[in-house]
């Protein structure tokens, strides 16, 4: 199974999200074609109600601990309650930043 | 060796009330996430410390375990992990980051 599918399955099982989007953004980064290294997750769940962002992110990181340790290099996380989602973020989902080359940056940065 | 690194991390966190662990430097970030985070932090208008983890592979290896946080950047304020890039950006957009940083900076100044 692809890492993308594993992430999706694990998050569906753990948070019963009302909205879940798992995006493989690896192609935007300094990795070989077909990589599964950089992901973005947008997840909306009642479980996040009353929890600070750090706690929500820690909960997601915990569910994906194996993948984070072995496969995922970068995980952009956007965790919302239903109200935050419908009030604002549904129309304003944040974009991930451009890659700057990471540890493999060349002598002349692109940006 | 590992223990030395953890001690160094603890010292850095204790001695710098606003501290960003990042890839590269705020002037020359090596990663888009580190770049966004340091820009948001800079625009809060207070001085902050940073550690380039690409220059410190021992810290890069040990901090995620110590912090129980798998990725970089990591923003630490007053000895506590605030979060990574996405949390920093969301707090910044709501004005919460500016508040937190201003408060930490003025506390640090009054303790000097």
Automatic annotation (TrEMBL), chain A:
<protein>
    <submittedName>
        <fullName>Transcriptional regulator</fullName>
    </submittedName>
</protein>
<dbReference type="InterPro" id="IPR050961">
    <property type="entry name" value="BolA/IbaG_stress_morph_reg"/>
</dbReference>
<dbReference type="InterPro" id="IPR036065">
    <property type="entry name" value="BolA-like_sf"/>
</dbReference>
<comment type="similarity">
    <text>Belongs to the BolA/IbaG family.</text>
</comment>
<dbReference type="Pfam" id="PF01722">
    <property type="entry name" value="BolA"/>
</dbReference>
<dbReference type="InterPro" id="IPR002634">
    <property type="entry name" value="BolA"/>
</dbReference>
UniProtKB/TrEMBL annotation, chain B:
<dbReference type="InterPro" id="IPR014434">
    <property type="entry name" value="Monothiol_GRX"/>
</dbReference>
<dbReference type="Pfam" id="PF00462">
    <property type="entry name" value="Glutaredoxin"/>
</dbReference>
<keyword id="KW-0676">Redox-active center</keyword>
<keyword id="KW-0479">Metal-binding</keyword>
<feature type="domain" description="Glutaredoxin">
    <location>
        <begin position="18"/>
        <end position="82"/>
    </location>
</feature>
<keyword id="KW-0411">Iron-sulfur</keyword>
<dbReference type="InterPro" id="IPR002109">
    <property type="entry name" value="Glutaredoxin"/>
</dbReference>
<dbReference type="InterPro" id="IPR036249">
    <property type="entry name" value="Thioredoxin-like_sf"/>
</dbReference>
<comment type="similarity">
    <text>Belongs to the glutaredoxin family. Monothiol subfamily.</text>
</comment>
<keyword id="KW-0408">Iron</keyword>
<dbReference type="InterPro" id="IPR033658">
    <property type="entry name" value="GRX_PICOT-like"/>
</dbReference>
<keyword id="KW-0001">2Fe-2S</keyword>
<protein>
    <recommendedName>
        <fullName>Glutaredoxin</fullName>
    </recommendedName>
</protein>
<dbReference type="InterPro" id="IPR004480">
    <property type="entry name" value="Monothiol_GRX-rel"/>
</dbReference>
């Amino acid at each position: 199974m692809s890492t993308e599918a594993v992430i999706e399955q694990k998050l569906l099982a753990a948070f019963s999200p009302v909205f879940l989007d798992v995006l493989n953004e690896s192609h935007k980064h300094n990795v070989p074609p077909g990589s599964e290294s950089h992901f973005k997750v947008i997840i909306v769940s009642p479980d996040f109600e009353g929890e600070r962002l750090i706690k929500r992110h820690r909960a997601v990181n915990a569910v994906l601990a194996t993948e984070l340790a072995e496969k995922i290099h970068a995980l952009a996380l956007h965790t919302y309650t239903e109200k935050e989602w419908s009030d604002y973020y549904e129309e304003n989902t944040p974009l991930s930043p451009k890659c700057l080359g990471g540890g493999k940056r060349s002598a002349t940065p692109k940006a | 060796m590992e223990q030395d690194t953890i001690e160094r991390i603890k010292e850095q966190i204790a001695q710098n009330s606003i501290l960003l662990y990042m890839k590269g430097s705020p002037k020359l970030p090596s990663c888009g996430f580190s770049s966004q985070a340091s820009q948001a932090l800079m625009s809060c208008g207070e001085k902050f410390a940073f550690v380039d983890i690409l220059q410190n592979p021992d810290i890069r290896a040990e901090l995620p375990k110590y912090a129980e946080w798998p990725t970089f950047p990591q923003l630490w304020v007053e000895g506590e992990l605030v979060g990574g890039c996405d949390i920093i950006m969301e707090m910044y957009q709501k004005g919460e980051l500016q508040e937190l940083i201003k408060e930490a900076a003025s506390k640090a100044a009054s303790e000097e």
